[in-house]
Design goal:
5 helices, mainly alpha, 67% helix
């Protein structure tokens, strides 16, 4: 069994998560150019009415990128919230301490390796 994260490790993880959040916010801002997601998607459709098919695929890709960024930002915010509540580094399924090496590789990890592996099995519930 691994030991809980030290205060120094928690501070390092907090800094890493805050840096991730800033990067994602900047990426999101750059992608949407200051518009809402709906405004940005609508603008893509208006670019060239003669090439609707092309713009529909651009719009779908744009929305997928926006969704990916929003999910990543949500995961980072959740990790920061767990950190503030003293629950960071504990598996969401079994409550065990998540290996610090795993958290260093993936600061947003919510499950220990064993529980993550169970969830990834094809017939997992």
């Amino acid at each position: 069994m691994t030991t809980p994260l030290s205060p120094e490790q928690l501070a390092t993880q907090r800094q890493a998560l805050q840096a991730m959040r800033q990067q994602l916010l900047a990426q999101q801002q750059g992608h949407l150019a200051g518009q809402s997601r709906a405004e940005h998607a609508h603008e893509l459709l208006l670019l060239d009415p003669d090439d609707v098919r092309h713009h529909e695929s651009d719009r779908a890709l744009d929305l997928a990128i926006s969704d990916r960024d929003a999910l990543a930002l949500s995961a980072v915010e959740s990790a920061l919230q767990r950190l503030a509540q003293g629950r960071y580094g504990l598996c969401a399924d079994c409550g065990a301490v998540i290996n610090p090496a795993r958290l260093l590789l993936s600061p947003i990890a919510t499950r220990c390796v064993a529980c993550a592996a169970k969830r990834e099995q094809p017939n997992a519930r």
